Amino acid sequence: MTELDDDREGIEPETLDEDAGDPAAAFDALRRTIETQGAQIGAEMTVIRRGLEAAFDQFEKIEPQADYKPQLAQLVQALDSVAQRMHGVEQSPILRQGAQHYAAALERSGEGLVRTAVQQLERQASDLERAGRNLSAHVASARERKRQNWWLVAAFALGLIVGALVMLFLPRLLGSVPARGEMTP
């Protein structure tokens, strides 16, 4: 088991799941856990102290007086380490700042995200509108070119027909018209 698992032993799993989205409840759960662990450490220290006293009484009966100063020094050092850790947890910025501070910070960051998303959405909407106008202009231009092409084909066909008729009937018309100075019979 890791040190993180040891730290989470005092926290009930349902408390962790319920408080996952609420910073105030999470901080309250952390405070309760620290208080519970402090009380447990105090109770364990009392039990250890009583056990040591009983053990010393038994050792005095069995063996001659031994020098326990090194072991006691280690125990005192371990207790100092635990006391320092507890003091460090009590002084953590999370507990000093309070839930309202972190809730306000989360709210500000959320507002910034929403503002950025709205600006990006507006830019994309204007890009889409511009693309729609460009597409509309291209479609109108294509329709106009199609109409112009139709008129060119119609003018070419009419010119071809008129030219063919002129070629057919012009010689007859020219042949039946008397030249200058000629008289018709």
TrEMBL record:
Region: Disordered; residue ranges are 1-22
Compositional bias, Acidic residues, is annotated for 1-21
Q: Which top-rank group of organisms is this from?
A: Bacteria
Question: Where would you find the membrane-spanning parts of this chain?
Answer: 150-170
Keywords from UniProt, A to Z, are: Membrane, Transmembrane, Transmembrane helix
Q: By what name is this protein known?
A: Uncharacterized protein
State the organism of origin: Pseudochelatococcus contaminans
